[in-house]
Amino acid sequence: MSSSQRPSFTEPTTSYWQEILPALSDQPSSNTPRQYSWPAVLPDGRQFLLPIRPLHTNPKEAVASLFINHASFCVVGELSVILFRLLDEFMGKDRPDMVIGLPTAGLCIAVEVAKGFGHSRSVPLGFSQKFWYDEALSTELSSVTSPLGSKRVYLDPNLLPLVKGKKVILIDDTVSSGQSILTSGKTMKAVWDLLESEAIGCNVAACGVFMKQSQRWRQVLGEERSKRLVGVFDSPLLKAVEGGWVIRE
User: Fold this and answer.
1) CA 45/CA 184 separation, integer angstroms
2) Per DSSP, what are the bridge partners of residue 206?
3) Residue 218: helix, strand or coil by DSSP?
4) Closest CA relative to residue 101, chosen from 53, 136, 68
């Protein structure tokens, strides 16, 4: 489908992700078309507007997108605090040994969550393969928003002693169909598998994200891991109709 056939209800994202709005009576509806944005609802009832972007594979379907690297510092900080509080409640008296961040957006969130747990550092995964890296400490990721080919994500072998056999929390910005929203290749399940593999031997006690996009990721991660995934807000998959976009699922 050519660009001229794309639904017209999209707009530049320059002003998005810059503020959190007060709770409003205008709650998301599956029946009323939204033209440019979707109001995600935070746990306290406040709203966070997400721009609607058509999928490159089918421009008549869309997602309400989050690019946290484009967000204001105060939004990142506030969402990080909410995520930490949710994870803290989920963990109860159980404390993580380390917080691990997925690149790229998950890295800054992991730092803030780690601070909340009183840690002095977090452990970053990365896309860039250094010459001393071990292929056994890597896996592939995939994305619903990226048209590019696959990337591998790596754990620096020098950081292995910090996580091997430890209880960890895994952090990313978004989960969608079990996939990391920022990368290309396989799924978040592959990262979880890697961390719990014999090579690393982590106990992934929880996974924290800002946005849970649809519910498809539950089928990919499985029942037990899905119970350990904590998110700040939900975002639906959308479809084009006369007058805008409505919930597809």
Assistant:
1) 33
2) 169
3) helix
4) 68
Give Rg (Cα) of the chain: 18
Q: Which helix (H) or strand (E) holds 107?
A: helix 105-116
What is the crossing angle of helices 73-91 and 105-116, to 10°?
A: 60
* Whole-angstrom distance, CA of residue 35 vs CA of residue 11: 9
* C-alpha closest to that of 35 among 241, 214, 249: 241
Length of the chain equals 249
Per-residue pLDDT of the chain (249 residues; tens, 9 = 90+): 444 454 567 888 999 999 999 987 656 566 788 889 999 999 999 999 999 988 887 888 888 999 999 999 999 999 999 999 999 999 999 999 999 999 888 999 999 999 999 999 999 999 888 999 999 999 876 554 455 556 788 999 999 999 999 999 999 998 875 444 333 224 678 899 999 999 999 999 999 999 998 888 888 888 899 999 999 999 988 998 988 898 887
CA–CA dist 72, 49 (Å, integer): 13
β-partners of residue 209 are 231
Q: Give 14: exposed, middle or buried? Use CB within 10 Å, 0-12, 13-18, 19+.
A: exposed
CA-to-CA distance for 195 and 153, rounded, in angstroms?
12
**Contact at 8 Å (CB) between 170 and 192?**
yes
- Closest to 104 measured CA to CA, from 81, 82, 128, 80: 128
